[in-house]
Amino acid sequence: MSDNDVMTAARTKTPEPAAAPTDPAAGPAVPARMGLRERKKLKTRVAIRDATYRLIREQGYEATTVEQIAEAAEVSPSTVFRYFPTKEDIVLTDEYDPLLEVELRARPADEPIVESLRHVLRRAVRLGFTEEPEVSRLRTTLMVEVPAVRSRMLESMSVTGRMLCRVIAERTGRDADDLEVRTFSMALIGALTEASAYWAEHDHEDDLGDLVDRTLDMLSAGFRA
Amino acid sequence: MSDNDVMTAARTKTPEPAAAPTDPAAGPAVPARMGLRERKKLKTRVAIRDATYRLIREQGYEATTVEQIAEAAEVSPSTVFRYFPTKEDIVLTDEYDPLLEVELRARPADEPIVESLRHVLRRAVRLGFTEEPEVSRLRTTLMVEVPAVRSRMLESMSVTGRMLCRVIAERTGRDADDLEVRTFSMALIGALTEASAYWAEHDHEDDLGDLVDRTLDMLSAGFRA
DNA sequence: CACCTTTTGACAGTTACTCTCATTTCATGG
DNA sequence: CCATGAAATGAGAGTAACTGTCAAAAGGTG
């Protein structure tokens, strides 16, 4: 998911260096590292994000201006906007949709999509948790408390929804733009996002993995009421 | 729904005058109209909205500034913001959640909620359509094309979701804050919103009522894939 | 008509975000 | 090691969506 809900909980990493071209013939034995340029860019990105998280924790979201963030990250405001299109994106942007898509495709094609999601999300929750539980919590809290952040998060849902459409379409042979495929996908996303909101609203007391499980159970059992 | 998706399609009316207190003992035979003050407020509200729709149709959403809207509606920018908290709200705000809630509660309590929604939404779509088809289309188009509007619309989904939770909770005896109730509701909302998006993206060629039907069919048939 | 309340407009200020341009910083081939 | 080109940065000006304040105007009431 591009950032929202459940995946929101998991991770915050920066994108992989995109496999540096390990030229076998030419270069030295050195693992063909990223150029200094790229390394610096990554550092800047991380610096901005870390500064943002810190400031928000200290003084809240609205009270934290981009100018402050820039100062804390030791860059100019211009640069902040070059790295992140909006303030909300600093908090939310991650690049997990592609990863999630890969993992979903790796599951057996005849497995019900709900079960595929169950496996993949469980793993994501576990990983995100052992790594940076605080970030998961901060994010979901902001999602519940700050309208702008919630909006941006909901926005990202539709991106993830498209991805889900593609996967489902491929499995079922239907079109990714099929009405049923699309509404089905968004129903899943909507439910899972709500599970994350529930988690945050209940002060993260439950185990997110369990909430996801229960949500998927509900979905696969079919709606009642 | 506070504004989003399917309900987006339906209506745009202004809120009912809130049943003027027809004091049977006191006042004159006059139907106890709204005071001049209230009538003026309504007129201003309508003027702002109409001006906004017109300007957006003429020059697009982003190109239309609040200042222009104010001028066209013959009020000051301050007043515009007094009536609508954000620019997106001018386009989106309606007050149909309460109405929808009433109609849902009017359905037999033992009817599956999906069927209740089917009846209520079908009627809403029909009404909204005979009345102001253009507004329905403009809205859904903006929802698909303008990120800010889409965000605001998604935002309103959660409000509608809460309402749905209350209705479902009452019918089933569960708590409105129950995880399953909440995720179930948001799955419904997510699916229906996506149906509206589908409608707009396909240039409103399909019949919205049919799309809603198919979506609800899919939901009640249970997920597959 | 006088008095009080609500609504309005004028205005100043904040902040997110955009654009442009000059400067600096890295990469690369000679 | 340096010259040249490309990319990243910073500075600064500008826009537009809001927010808050205060005084003037309009509506309601005795």
From TrEMBL, chains A, B:
Matching InterPro entries: Homeodomain-like_sf, HTH-type_TetR-like_transc_reg, HTH_TetR, MftR_C
This protein's UniProt keywords: DNA-binding, Transcription, Transcription regulation
Claim: Transcription regulation is one of the keywords in the record: yes
Residue span, HTH tetR-type domain: 42-102
Name this polypeptide is given: TetR family transcriptional regulator
The entry's DNA-binding region: 65-84
UniProt region (Disordered), positions on chain: 1-30
Positions with biased composition (Low complexity): 8-30
Keyword Transcription: yes
